[in-house]
Amino acid sequence: MEQQRRAGKIDDAFFLLVEGLISGFRFYFTDEETPFMHFSTDTNGESVVGRLSADVHLEHLGLRLATACPGLGFSAGDTDLPELRYPVAGFRDAWGLKIILSRLIYEVMEPYCRRQTGHLVYDQPGT
Question: Degrees (nearest 5) of the Cα angle 108, 7, 33?
Answer without folding.
Answer: 50
